[in-house]
């Protein structure tokens, strides 16, 4: 006998059915995908905030911003998802598809990867 993965109710219908309702499917997936502890949740929140700030400042896909402007919006330079080192020796720090590179005089070049 097949049962719902969330509530263990008996399943009726398709042979590959895993949940008795959309509510059970959503509840099960929310449990599986939730951040497992406060540290992960805090890091993910900082990454999301940094991403929102870069997206807000870099509407056109390539722009400049000052360190002060980024910090005033709450940007945390310690949190990013990956680093790209170019052949010319430039280092870009990325938050998913939004990136930045340090320029002179506390300016940053903001870029967006085409995905």
Uncertain segments: none
Query: What is the structural class?
Result: alpha+beta
- Biggest sheet statistics: 5 strands, antiparallel
Rg over C-alpha atoms, rounded to the nearest angstrom: 21 Å
Residue fraction in strands: 15-25%
On the 0 to 100 scale, the average pLDDT is 94
The secondary-structure element order is HHEHEEEE
Please give a structural write-up.
The structure is a single chain. By secondary structure, this protein is an alpha+beta fold. It has 3 helices and 5 strands. This is DUF2116 family Zn-ribbon domain-containing protein.
Would you spell out the secondary-structure blueprint of this structure?
Elements: H1 22-33, H2 38-57, E1 62-66, H3 67-72, E2 82-85, E3 91-95, E4 98-102, E5 107-112
Antiparallel strand pairs: 1-5, 2-3, 3-4, 4-5
Protein name: DUF2116 family Zn-ribbon domain-containing protein
In short:
This is DUF2116 family Zn-ribbon domain-containing protein. The protein has 115 residues and is α+β, with helices and mostly antiparallel strands.
Characteristic key phrases:
five-stranded antiparallel β-sheet, elongated, 5 strands, 115 residues, alpha+beta
């Amino acid at each position: 006998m097949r049962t719902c993965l969330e509530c263990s109710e008996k399943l009726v219908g398709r042979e590959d059915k895993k949940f008795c309702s959309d509510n059970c499917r959503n509840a099960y997936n929310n449990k599986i995908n939730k951040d497992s502890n406060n540290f992960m949740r805090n890091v993910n929140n900082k990454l999301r905030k940094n991403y929102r700030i870069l997206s807000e400042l870099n509407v056109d896909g390539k722009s400049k911003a000052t360190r002060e402007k980024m910090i005033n919006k709450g940007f945390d330079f310690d949190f990013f998802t990956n680093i790209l080192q170019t052949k010319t020796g430039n280092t870009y720090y990325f938050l998913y598809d939004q990136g930045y590179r340090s320029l002179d005089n506390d300016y940053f070049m903001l870029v967006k990867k085409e995905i």
